[in-house]
Design a protein that fits this description.
Structural class: mainly beta
Distance between the termini: 10 Å
Largest sheet: 8 strands, antiparallel
Length: 188
């Protein structure tokens, strides 16, 4: 346990995960790494339109948490993608939101600790949580052979439903070169 924004933050271990829901892909591994939960997901569907894939990690309500930090590591190309927002892989995760509130930096949401992603040039002008284009500022269409990284701090929709990280893709690479790793999840 640590302190974040003046509140006790809890690292999520596998014992605090309610379920993992997927669509259009395969969980390659899941479990604790150095005491913190981590899951690796392969995107098996790569077409455009209804052929999307996504993963949702539903966390238990073991404490009254309202904020979440989560790191995503992303391999492979995707013209269309979303993080905890309606978009892609919506068959799981409360229509893709993961039961998190609409992304708003003014309200406290943040995208931090990026590597070849949203806060790095030339991607800073693009929407941080969703896309469906091949523009030069879409980080998911560049550097596709290396893991890009981003950490989100997000507000939870406190409506009685379980919540957690979600990521989905469409119009993307598929198979061994299309991986999402979700790790370093903290709630407070």
């Amino acid at each position: 346990m640590s302190t974040v924004y003046g509140r006790k933050a809890y690292s999520i271990s596998s014992t605090l995960v309610s379920s993992i829901a997927v669509t259009g892909g395969t969980v390659l591994s899941s479990g604790d790494v150095n005491g913190s939960f981590e899951v690796s997901f392969r995107h098996d569907l790569g077409g455009c339109g209804s052929a999307d894939s996504g993963i949702f990690v539903q966390l238990l309500d073991f404490t009254a948490w309202t904020m979440m930090a989560v790191q995503f590591e992303l391999l492979g190309s995707a013209s269309c993608w979303s993080f905890n927002t309606s978009g892609y892989g919506n068959a799981v995760g409360n229509s893709g939101t993961g039961n998190m509130l609409t992304y708003s930096e003014a309200a406290g949401d943040k995208c931090v600790k990026t590597y070849l992603a949203q806060n790095d040039s030339p991607y800073t002008t693009h929407d941080k949580v969703s896309a469906c284009d091949n523009n030069a500022d879409n980080f998911m269409v560049a550097n596709t052979g290396v893991y890009r990284k981003c950490t989100f701090i997000r507000r939870r929709n406190v409506n009685g439903s379980l919540a957690g990280p979600h990521h989905g893709r469409s119009c993307n690479a598929s198979g061994a070169g299309a991986i999402t790793v979700i790790k370093n999840i903290y709630v407070w």
